[in-house]
Amino acid sequence: MSDVVWRYSGNPIIPRDLIPSSNSIFNSAVVPFNGRFAGVFRCDNKRREMNIHRGFSDDALNWRLDDDPIEWRFTDPELAPYEHRYDPRVTWLEDRYYVTWCNGYHGPTIGIGYTLGLVITFLTVTASAVRISKVNIIAAIRNLNLPRLPRPSQWTLFLHPLRVYRQMLREAGQGNVLKAARLFLFAAPRAIWDFWMGLLARGPVLLVLGFLLAWVGVNVAEQSGVYGMGVALFFVGLGQLLAWIGLPVRLAYSLTGLALVLYWSLPTREAGRLAGLGQNPGDFFIGGLFMVGGAILLFLYNADQLLALFAGLLSRFGRLLPVARVAISYPVAAKGRTATTLAMFSLIIFTLVGTATIANTFSNFLDVESGSGGYDVLVQTNPFNPVSAETLSGQVDELVAAGEMPAPLALASAAFGPVEAQAPGMAGPASYAVLGVDESFLDTQQLELTSVARGYDSAEQVWAALRADPSLVVVDNFSVERSGDPTFQRDADAFAIGSISAGDDTFEPAPITIAGREFTVIGVLASAPAFYGATMNAEAADGLGFGEANRLYMRLPAGSDARAAANALERSLSRSGLQSVLLKEELAESRRSTEGIFALVQGFVGLGLLIGIAALGVITIRAVVERRQQIGVLRAIGFQTGMIKAVFLLANLFVAGLDHTLSLIPI
Fold first, then answer.
1. Rounded to an integer, what distance in angstroms lies between the CA atom of residue 528 and that of residue 371?
2. How many CA atoms, within 13 angstroms, populate the side-chain half-sphere of residue 229?
3. Which of 88, 108, 294, 606 could bond 101 through an S-S bridge, CB–CB 3.0 to 4.6 Å?
4. What is the pLDDT of residues 283-308, one digit of tens each?
5. Residue ranges of the domains in the chain?
6. How many other C-beta atoms can be found within 10 angstroms of the C-beta atom of residue 549?
7. Do 25 and 18 contact (CB within 8 A), yes or no?
């Protein structure tokens, strides 16, 4: 037995005070790990508290133990308290290491835990080893970036899958089934992937994809945004292709960036057949995305010229010039990082400014005073049990006399009814409405006009002409051409006057046909949803068969309770089925809802901007770490501490200024 079992003469292998807090160390459990050894150990501290520590060794004789015990994560916090831990064991099962120990938890128990840390460490070491194996000695000594290998030609990438399959067939014919299977399952898909990625990087894929999207946008989806996205991708693919066939890279990508900026900033999508394509709010952000991308391309591939220009401007400031050149040269050299930073900040700021602009537009669109015509209450009669305007007016007088409602400042009536109308260019008549207003309405209304016909100098002249001539009408702004408004959608068969654009201040008087009679449009209302249709005088409406007023508009004194007044009128004529609408209150509620939604969106985008600012700080810290050697050289050639600080400050100011400039390009 003395020849088989022996005691190591160098015991104890692990001294009792290997870590500062230990009184004794024993009960070790060791396993081989990644060519070395790892283990868990019972360590009693100087208060004789038993716990488990982790350790590593290269030869299983010389050990390094963690000063702190293993920290276990418990799904149930109740299991965290313990009295002692000793006698550990470690075992590999399936995909992880399990550790067991004698545990003190309300008496003797067995503790079981597992760790993925060893697996993660193994994967990290393996990945690092693979990367380090590719570093040459010069790069390792001088801490240089790895050189980039030349990109294989597209012809080589095209032939590579064929060569892989030929080799696979050859191996299968020789009986090497496993090797053939590995080629089929791993090498062949990778070769095909490399081929398509090569095409993507060289332009043909984006050219084809862009052409298909543009064709779908015109012929299938009939959406301007889809078409524009296709054209933008076509431009990017064309720039890649030009660079591939030999055009200087700077020139190719500068032309691409310039094409993207010009295409989305100029009215290039409103000519010919493109003018009839549909639009939606997303087109605004798609255009902004590509415009920002184009501007970034222009900057990155002309940064050296920009640096020279900047240096020329600062040439008169002797001490500031070297600081500026050094500060700007770093963002210019790190094109990928700078492009990512610019894209992140520019798109966030663009989205924030764009959302605020749209919110302000909607707020103006839902103006309470002009949208309601200055009236507080709209009373609508039941068509199956009509009430005359005289009856309504008399009932209002009775309620005022009884003290149930304040005396109205204005009381007007109108006849509203559905009709068939047609404008030049329409295939046939479409559903529309008319609103025949009385003299009181024309005297008291506060509606605004966004456009007036030529020959009329003001809105007052338009209303005066409408009062005198029954062949003249004013239409709502939903019935005119709004192709430039991505927030507006109209059905293909809806009534629309193509000769009047919502953005024009003046227009040629437009003829339309309503219920077989000819009328002329001389004005377009601002946003007023309650006044949809063709507004005309009472005589014109009577000629169309709408002689009886079925709407009553009331303007109440400031501070009056419009809801109480409307309820009083409804109660007094409850058998007639009156319906009242609080015009100002409904518009104000719609406006608040819209502003609330946009405020929420702006809040989320603003949070993204704050995170981006924090990221910029991280990038700055990283830049300081990466440029320690450069900082040392700068200090050696005479840069003072303040100049070094100014370099980093000016670099951030330069990037931030570009961010703001690029973000405002699409607005």
1. 4
2. 18
3. 88
4. 777 877 788 788 888 877 887 777 66
5. 22-124, 154-202, 321-365+588-667, 372-577
6. 25
7. yes
